Amino acid sequence: MTPHNKAQKNEIAQTVIMPGDPLRATWIAKQFLKDARLVSDVRGIPAYTGSYNGKELTVMAHGMGIPSMGIYSYELYKFYDVETIIRVGSAGSYSKDVKVGDILIAQDVTSFSRYAEDIGVDVQNNTLRATDSLTTLACETAREQGIQTELCRVFCSESFYNKYSLEESIKRSQNAQAVEMEGFALYANAISLHKQALMLLTCSDSLVTGEAMSADDRQLKFGGMVKLALETALNL
């Protein structure tokens, strides 16, 4: 057990699906996992372990922001021998070509965060890559499942609200197509600990057009992304 996870070591699967929202973690576990059981709920962050088409998987929330993702993913990799984490979350679009509802595969993540540097990861151009083999597997799985996706660069922001215009934000993000708030810590931890990581995102709002999903849509329309994460995990 760790300060943030009360599960026993054998209660966490080697592959973990991680949404940010605790309620979404519960929804995924109940909707998709067979015999899902709650193995941790420290600080209101649930972790469920069950099976998906015969493969043992854990679904665990990670909260909001780089520090929160940094703590939860580090403990899973370091103390629970987790090999692969697939984050499933929402993103804002920086591009007119990325529309609300689109599913994104984050090939790399750029950020101004010092998180990677703080844990000793060498960062080139403020950018970290997902595990290449996992990115390839997700793309292949999407094609097999008939799920349309976009391979893209994502900016990981440390602020939800800031002073920058859209044009300034895009320039600062090294021309990323979308923005979210956790992926940089996940990729840094995976690189540091020689593990696998990938981030799948559903575009929930467009910073270009102002269009946004409703609260109900954010649950109902994230199913394709979750399905892709689960099927990718199944193919590991």
Features:
Rossmann fold, five-stranded mixed β-barrel, 28% strand, 236 residues, 33% helix, alpha/beta
Structure overview:
Strands 5-9-8-6-10 form a 5-stranded mixed beta barrel, surrounded by 4 helices. The chain is globular, with a radius of gyration of 16 Å. Helices cover 33% and strands 28% of the residues. The chain has one domain (9-234): 3-Layer(aba) Sandwich (Rossmann fold), CATH 3.40.50. With 236 residues, the chain is of the alpha/beta class. 47% of the residues are buried.
Quick summary of this structure?
The chain is an alpha/beta fold and 236 residues long. 33% of the residues lie in helices and 28% in strands.
Rounded mean pLDDT score: 95
Radius of gyration: 16 Å
* Number of discrete domains: 1
Low-confidence stretches: none
In whole angstroms, the N-to-C terminal distance is: 26 Å
The number of helices is 8
Strand content: 25-35%
| N-to-C SSE string, H for helix and E for strand | EHEEEHEEHEHEHEHEHH
For this structure, the CATH topology is Rossmann fold
Topology:
Elements (H helix, E strand, L loop, with lengths): L14 E5 L2 H11 L1 E7 L6 E6 L2 E6 L5 H14 L4 E10 L9 E8 L4 H4 L8 E3 L2 H14 L3 E8 L9 H7 L5 E3 L2 H11 L2 E11 L8 H6 L2 H12 L2
Parallel strand pairs: 1-4, 1-5, 5-10, 6-8, 8-9
Antiparallel strand pairs: 2-3, 3-4, 5-9, 6-7, 6-10
